[in-house]
Amino acid sequence: MWATKAAILALYTRIFGSVRWMRLSSYLLIVLLFLFYGSNIAIAAIYCLPRNGAPWDATAFARCGSPVISAIVIGVFAVIADLALFVLPLPIIFGLRLSPKKKMGITLIFLVGFLYVL
Fold first, then answer.
1. CB-CB neighbours of 109 under 10 Å
2. Angle at 2 between CA 47 and CA 58, to 5 degrees
3. Distances (CA, A) of 17 to 2, 12, 38, 74, 92
4. Is the predicted pLDDT of residue 61 greater than 70, yes or no?
5. Distance (Å, rounded) from C-alpha 116 to C-alpha 80?
């Protein structure tokens, strides 16, 4: 999940790199997403490994089967990150001087992206 979101943010940095706030926001989000998703991997590894002296069988990994709280936190963070990726370029794009036809096309593209977030 981090790699796909980081790729989009890297694209934003490449396209809108001359806009300072956009470049800084993209870098900040890349680091924030890396820290969040990386910590989830570490937490899952610690949570799922058998305790000292426990056998490496299915019972040791049974507690990994339903991490409800972790799934909710990851889901909420993923939606917030998707919304941030959706909203981040909007002020720049809608500030462009384009023909009404091109603005309508860009609006349709972003509506498709908004449907993805939902």
1. 11
2. 25
3. 21, 7, 26, 29, 12
4. no
5. 13
Q: Tokens for 50, please give them.
A: 């058998």
pLDDT at res. 29: 95
- How far, in whole angstroms, is CA 16 from its chain's centroid? 19
Query: Tell me, what's the pLDDT at 112?
Result: 85
Closest of 5, 2, 13, 3 to residue 116, by C-alpha: 5
| Domain boundaries of the chain, sorted by first residue | 2-117
Question: Which residues are CB-contacts of 88 (< 8 A; sequence separation ≥ 6)?
Answer: 12, 22, 25, 26, 29
For the stretch 1-53, pLDDT in tens is 889 999 999 999 998 889 999 999 999 999 999 999 888 888 777 777 777 77
Asked whether 60 and 50 are in contact (CB, 8 A), the reply is yes
Tell me which amino acid residue 26 is.
Answer: S
Confidence check: pLDDT of 57 > 80:
no
